[in-house]
Amino acid sequence: MVQKKKAGAEAPVAAPKRRGRPRAYEPDVALGQALALFRKTGFAATSLDDLSAATGMNRPSLYGAFGDKRELYIRSYQRYREDYSGAAVEVFKADLPIRERLRRFYDVALDVYLPGDAPRGCFTVMTVASDAIADPEIRAMVLEGFSDLDKALGWCFRTAVAKGELPASADIAALSSVASATLYSLALRARAGIPRKQLETIAKGAIDLLCGPAKAP
Amino acid sequence: MVQKKKAGAEAPVAAPKRRGRPRAYEPDVALGQALALFRKTGFAATSLDDLSAATGMNRPSLYGAFGDKRELYIRSYQRYREDYSGAAVEVFKADLPIRERLRRFYDVALDVYLPGDAPRGCFTVMTVASDAIADPEIRAMVLEGFSDLDKALGWCFRTAVAKGELPASADIAALSSVASATLYSLALRARAGIPRKQLETIAKGAIDLLCGPAKAP
DNA sequence: TGATTTTTATACCGTCTCGCATAATATAAA
DNA sequence: TTTATATTATGCGAGACGGTATAAAAATCA
């Protein structure tokens, strides 16, 4: 029931001498552990006991720190977005040819979808496909996720057109939505257990279709 | 607790004078009602009481007719495939230009994903995204679903190449996987509540990308 | 009519579920 | 030391859960 603290990394920032009994957990790592469990079994099939075991916090502590199960799910989803949009932003910030940018983008996504031993897929996709989508607040978050991705991909293709890598006649919206569709497909197939090599082949095929095959001089 | 019988249609085929008390339900319609509920809330969040209420069968009858909840889910999934692959087969049988074939294919899919009032998405996608994917038998069914769709789409693009609608250099596997990815994306966005008009625009954009824009003579 | 068969209906069992009430524990402040 | 505060730990309680045992009901067969 005690959280294993990371060896060495002794929460260096701001030890403000809180007043009562000290916490036996770090909220951040607990949230990460809750997220990992939700990604495995989804909202409905994950019990508070499961979450308690996974985080090393007992139920009252969980409740006190994060609220009820629904709130914890929402926080986990926000954490998911924060964690993994970071990696994607790197790919967007770098000045890369569109083909290479997309290749890296899908590669980073596969890292997220295939963490460690077991395949997990995309948490947004899991949420949409669950009954949680009936919750207006959760639905709004998911729609924002869709929209953000479309916008980011749209920017990629627009700058590719500006750089002359794609013809000016390119349909940005169509390219973006096919590129995001490919991402969702990778997430699903990853979770279904299809090996990474095959997923990379799928990604490459999609890139060829989006940008034209290889570099034709 | 009694199933409403369809007015008029009085189960005309084969009334073989069964021996005991007659059933108060028709297994086929009950399975359809169970499927509808599973499509709404998924496996874990759907209780046997919910299923009992939806089918009009009490729990022991449900159990006797379909086995436990897992078996009922599997039967519902098979029913889903049977019901909706039929409509797709029509589109594949007809002798159509590839663009029109794809347009009708996505149109039929949207009928499935947006039944009546509430959006539902794709049951295969829901199953992959749930914890049910951990069940080997269910996982095998889902993988077969992926594979069947890839094969069917592959056939579409191959015949399009044979008919000269697409260049012989077309990458059949890449076209198929992007076409199926588009389908999954439509399923997700449909379930998230995006209106049909927008989904049709997405489908059209994907078709343009797959087959080249419009009919260039 | 009465016996047999098949299904429905009710009720129950043990387990799990979520959320919280209460008590014990560990720290800082006085 | 004592007091105040913040957390952990235990465990309770009402209800939901999946599954099944048992009894009542409705049909056919003899």
Quaternary structure of the protein: homodimer
* Radius of gyration based on Cα positions of chain A: 20 Å
N-to-C CA distance of chain A = 62 Å
Mean pLDDT of chain A: 90
Largest interface: A-B, 43 and 43 residues
Helix content of chain A: 55-70%
Q: Name the shape of chain A in a single word.
A: elongated
Strand content of the residues of chain A, in percent? under 5%
Number of strands of chain A: 0
Give the structural class of chain A: mainly alpha
Structural summary, described in words:
2 copies of one chain form a homodimer. By secondary structure, chain A is mostly helical. Chain A has 9 helices and no strands. Chain A has helices at 27-41, 48-55, 59-66, 69-93, 98-113, 123-129, 136-162, 172-191, 196-211. In chain A, helix 1 (27-41) packs across helix 4 (69-93). The longest helix of chain A has 27 residues, at 136-162. The first copy, chain A, is elongated and about 65 Å long. Residues 4-14 of chain A have low confidence and may be disordered. The interface between A and B is large, with 43 and 43 residues. Chain A binds a DNA duplex (30 and 30 nucleotides) through helix 3.
